[in-house]
Design goal:
alpha+beta, globular, 3 helices, 152 residues
């Protein structure tokens, strides 16, 4: 077997299309994972990890590989945010109603929801990102979105 350090570098980047982040808009996503997280301040939350399934818009998707688009959203659990977190979890799965947030962690994976995505172009400290980070802005239940479309 040849020593990999002796392989000549070739310009194969032209053969590979450049990665393009999903454009801003609404997407059908599936919850693939949920875990409890804790901020440096001690605030607890739940981090939702999604697989982007399909766009719900007509924007140009040339060069976008949805399988490579990473999407996470953290719901911080504070007294003030609790009603919003409960509403978002209910939009993901009505089966969460009547359960604790801890029990909902087992209910959420595998459920589909429509999310409105925007782009973050810089870190919190202001340093720019090379590739925009996807950010969840809103959650829409499948039933509501199907009957009301983009009225929101």
């Amino acid at each position: 077997m040849a020593d990999l350090f002796d392989i000549v570098i070739s310009d194969s980047s032209a053969d590979r299309p450049a990665f393009r982040q999903a454009p801003v808009g609404d997407y059908l996503v599936m919850v693939t994972g949920v875990k409890i997280v804790k901020a440096n301040t001690g605030t607890q939350g739940i981090e939702l990890e999604f697989t982007v399934r399909e766009p719900m818009h007509t924007e140009d998707m040339t060069g976008v590989d949805l399988a490579k688009c990473r999407l996470r959203d953290t719901q911080w659990l504070t007294e003030a945010a609790l009603p919003y977190v409960q509403e978002r979890l209910t939009r993901i799965s009505p089966k969460t109603v009547g359960n604790t947030i801890r029990d909902s962690i087992d209910i959420l994976p595998g459920n589909e929801v429509i999310v409105s995505i925007s782009h973050e172009t810089a870190n919190r400290d202001g340093t720019p990102l090379n590739t925009p980070r996807l950010k969840v802005e809103r959650y829409y239940s499948l039933g509501w979105y199907g009957s009301n479309k983009k009225v929101a």
